[in-house]
Every structure is written in structure tokens, then in C-alpha cells.
Amino acid sequence: MDWKEVAEDFWDSVKDHGYYIAGVAALILIPFLIGAPGFSELPLLSNIYEIGRKLEIFPNNKWFLVILSYTLIFAIFAASWDFLCGYTGQISFGHAIFWGVSAYSFYWIASSASFLITQMDITLLPFDPLIALILSGIASALLALVIGIIALRLKGPYLALVTMIVPLIAAQIFVQGELAVTGGEYGVSLIGTLIIDYLGIPYEQYALNFYLFTLLVFFISIGIMMLIAFSRVGLAFKSIREDEDAAESLGINLPFYKILAFVISAFFAGIAGCMMAQSPMFRVANSSFFGTSISFTVIIYVVIGGIGTITGGVVGAFVMIYLIEFLLDPIFSHIIGFDLLALAIVLIISLRYLPFGLVRATKDQKRALSLGVLFAFAWAIIPSSEGFGVNLLTKHVLPGTEQANTLLGKLVSIFVEAITTLIGKIDMLGIMAGGYDMTYLGGPLTLESFLVFISLLIMFISVIPAILIFFTGEIIGLFIIEGIMGLNLSGENLISAKFFIYIIVGIPYAYYFPKLFKTIRLKYWGVWPSMGRYEPD
Q: Helices 96-112 and 292-305: crossing angle, nearest 10°?
């Protein structure tokens, strides 16, 4: 065996799937990164997290774990929809029916089967509610079998219309149902049927336990769906998607495989709905689980991530939920429906520049997305409120921002702030040389914080050619948010807004600047100056 070839093949595989490996590693390391109860912190990672947490780029530990659990659940739901529509081509606009039925089924099963958790000292995951969780998924699968026998004989828009109407009917049935059975319009409480009893332990420990359980369910669910998708059954699904007549001529039983895909998709959608009803954010099942917005939101996640990949729905869910919950919500929370507007805008941009989704993006596009976020992170956290240059300008040269009372004055104050921020970033070497306490790195100067600072300094230097672009974007972006939209940004909200603007500017910069540099190099220097001028044909 040639170990060199084996090592090279392994390294090529890591490079090809590096984004997935990095994502899985990040999910597993998150409790260590944030120092959750029972987990020791990893110094370098926790320093990076501390920077983002202080700037409100990352929230506090408890809320972070809750949102991550919420994201993992929606990722399972998105992958289940992609399993049906991306692999068989059967469009469903009412996948929320399985999301809601499973949540109610868990309540009925857990209550009638005496799976209630009452011990106050439980810190591990009990086994009995797992059975109720699986049975709830099976209940959704059985419902899908009934709907599939009726609806999957239809094609095109008729199938989509039927699947969209079914959850609307179900919502009315559950609202008008008996209070003892469905809870009416208020729904049923799942406090007594939680997977882990939250009354006997601190909330942060409960959030960690639920996150770890959700992470386990996530990996198992995605793994099973991917195994099926890459098996012979998945090949039959793909053949149906490409050409039903050709698939039938090859002996594939179309009704059987369509219904099978529908049932499998519904099972995992039910698992996700059941988990959502038990999450720390809800702990209740009501008619909102059948909402049309849930069905269409998950479709948008899949389209942004990439249809027909399973992992596309996962990537889309993580990107959009982080974007909305962590960046946009602190800035635009006063605007009603801003989350739907954000989904629509990102969907339009994705369809224009990434028609096949993030997962199927080219290497240049993936590199630009990754570097754009890193540039934004580095640009946002390098100190801008200390140093000789900033103090000199703010105290003796430029007026304070509180004097800006008019729209024009706000524009001037934003421009002034951009200048002072630029001086602060240039003055950062003086901050280190002057022996300032590097509290923005989470504590005094240590080896870990020094490595973080050097890494961010390198990224900052790499965007020096785009200083004008970055600050023009900041001026225009803050002028739109504060001046035109009238939103009052201060403190952490201002930093979140800047980070969001830097991402918008950084991604195009990371994509177009290397191409521009390559064009200039070929035009004026050839391939390399030492090799002489290269004249293309």
C-alpha cells in the first residue's frame, strides 16, 4: 500500500468536503467554546466567542444554545422537505401538516402512556420519551400514507394545491376540537411531557441538555436520509424526478416510490415538529404549527441552500436563522414583518447569483462567502474607541454626534464616525505598543488573545485595498438605516449593524478583488514579472 497516495486522497477528500467537516466540528465544539455547565472552555475558541459575545455578534450562552437547538430542528424539517421535492420532484406546499400533527401526537401518546417526567434530579436523557418521539413520527408517516394515496396520483400544480389546503383544514379541525383533546385555539401544554424535566435543574443546564439531544437527533435524521438518498431507492427517486415515463419504462413502480418518499419525508418532518413543540422556546402545541408561513419558510431555506442535496436545507436554515435572529432582529425588531422581508431579499439575491444554492456554489463563490464573513468579523472587532488618533479627532477637531439633529446632520455625523473609526483601526498598533489592557479580547494580554489579535490583524491588512469601499458601504448603510428608516442605533445594535454592512461589502470584495488583481497582473506584468510579459492570443 502506498501511504503517500492514501494520504493525498484523504487530503483531497478533506478539501472537497471541508465546509461540511468544519460545520460538524463547530456544532460539536460549541458547548466547549462557550463554556457551558459541565464543559471546560477551549482557550482560543472561547476567546473568539468572547469577542463576538461582547459585540453582540454572538448572544449569551443560554440563548445561543436555544437558538442553535431551534436551528437544528428547522434543519431537519428543511432536509425532510428536500428529500421529497428535491429527489422525487413532488412539490408540497403544506409540509406543516406533519409538523403539527406530530406535536399533538406526542402529547397524546406521552400523556396516555404515562411517560411523564416528574423527578427533580434528572440530568440525563430518559429513554421512554424517545419511544413517544418515534411514535409521533410514525403517526405523521401514517397520515402521509393516507394523503399520498389520494394526492400523489395528481401531478404538477394540482398536487401542490392539495398539499397546501390540507394543513389549513387541519388547523381549523384542531381549533374547533374539544378542549380536553386539542386545547382549542390555545393548544396543549407539553410542560409535563418534556424530554428533560426543566424544573429540577438550572435553565442553562436544561438548554444544554436539550441542545445535545437535538444534536443527536439531527445527526441521526440527516444520516438516515442521506443513506437512503444515495442507495438504490434514492436512485429510483432521482429517475422519477428526471423523467417519470422513462422511469416507468424501466420497471419502477411510480405510485409505490412516490408514496414511500412522501412517508419517509413526513416521518422526519414529524420528528422535527415534535422536537420544536418541546423546545425551551415553545413547550406547547397549537394551531400555529399548521401555519402556511412555516411551509413556505422551509422551502426558502432549501432553495437558498440548494435543492436536491439534503445538506442544502441544513445550510440554508443555519444561514438564514443566524442572519435573522442574531444580526437583523436587534436592528430591525421594530419593523413588523422584517424577517419575511429579509427572506424575500436573500431569496432574490440567491436566485440571481446562486441559482443552485450555497451547497452547489463554485469554489470561488464559497471562498468569497467565507472570507467575506471573516473580513467583516475582523473589521468589526478591531478597537475603534481608544487610541491617540481617535481622542485627538473627537475631542479637538470634529463635532460630537449629539449635535446632529437633522437628516443632513446625521449624514455628517455618520461620515465623522467613519473617519474616527478608520483612525482607530490604523491606531491599533499604538494601542498594543502602549500597553493598554486588551479587555476587548476578554481579558489581559495572553498567548491566546495575542494569536487571535495577530490573525485579525492579518485579515485587516488584507482588506486595506478596500478601505474606501468598506467605509463608503458603512456611510451609505448607516445613512439608510438611521437617516431614511429612522432607526436609532446605539451600543451593541450599532456594532451588529456595522457587522451586517461589512458582510454585504466584504463578500463582493472577496469575490471580485482577486479577479481584478489577476486581470491587472496579466495586463501589465504578464504571468510573473521575472518571466517577461505574457501576451494572450
A: 120
Residues 6+ apart with CB under 8 A from 39: 31, 32
Q: Both 189 and 322 in a single domain? A: yes
Angle at 360 between CA 354 and CA 364, to 5 degrees: 70
Residues 495, 383: contact at Cβ < 8 Å?
no
CA–CA separation, 307 and 320 (whole Å) = 16
Residue 46 lies in a domain: no
Q: Provide CB contacts within 8 A for 32, sequence distance 6+.
A: 39, 40, 41, 42, 45, 46
Task: Render the burial of 331-366: b for 16+ CB within 10 Å, e for the rest.
Answer: bbeeeeeebeebbeebbeebeeebebbbbbbeeebe
The DSSP secondary structure of 138-200, one letter per residue, reads: HHHHHHHHHHHHHHTTS-THHHHHHHHHHHHHHHHHHHHS-HHHH-GGG-EE-GGG-SS-SSS
Question: In terms of Cα–Cα distance, which of 515, 504, 465 is closest to 364?
Answer: 515
Cβ proximity of 526 and 519 under 8 Å? no
Q: Closest Cα to residue 322, out of 70, 29, 21?
A: 70
Which candidate, 72, 80, 92, 90, places its Cα nearest to that of 310?
A: 80
| Strands 284-285 and 188-189, bridge-based pairing | antiparallel
Task: Tell me the β-bridge partners of 189.
Answer: 284
Prediction pTM value: 0.82
C-alpha closest to that of 306 among 265, 261, 344, 347: 347
Q: Does 193 have pLDDT greater than 50?
A: no
**Tens digits of residue pLDDT in 392-420:** 555 555 555 444 445 556 666 666 666 66
Per-residue pLDDT for 428 more than 60?
no
- Identify whether the C-beta of residue 88 lies closer than 8 Å to the C-beta of residue 259: no
Write out the DSSP string of 385-436: S-SHHHHHIIIIISPPGGG--SHHHHHHHHHHHHHHHHHHHHTHHHHHHTT-
Number of domains present in the structure of the chain: 2
Name the residue type at position 114. Answer: S
Confidence of residue 72 (pLDDT cuts 50, 70, 90): very high
pLDDT at 125 over 70: no
Domain membership flag for residue 380: yes
Torsion angles phi and psi, residue 217, rounded to 5: -65, -40
Grid coordinates in use for 510?
472577496
pLDDT in tens, 233-260: 888 888 888 888 888 888 888 888 888 9
Q: Who has greater pLDDT, 302 or 103? A: 302
Other residues' Cβ atoms within 10 Å of the Cβ of residue 532? 10
442 in the same domain as 384: yes
Q: Domain containing 472: what range?
A: 367-531
Q: Within this chain, do residues 376 and 270 fall inside the same structural domain, yes or no?
A: no
Does residue 430 carry a pLDDT above 60? no
For residue 295, give the C-alpha cell. Answer: 411551509
> Do residues 464 and 433 share a domain?
yes
Q: Position 365: which residue type?
A: Q
Which residues lie below 8 Å from residue 105, measured CB to CB, with a gap of 6+? 135, 136, 139, 140, 270, 274
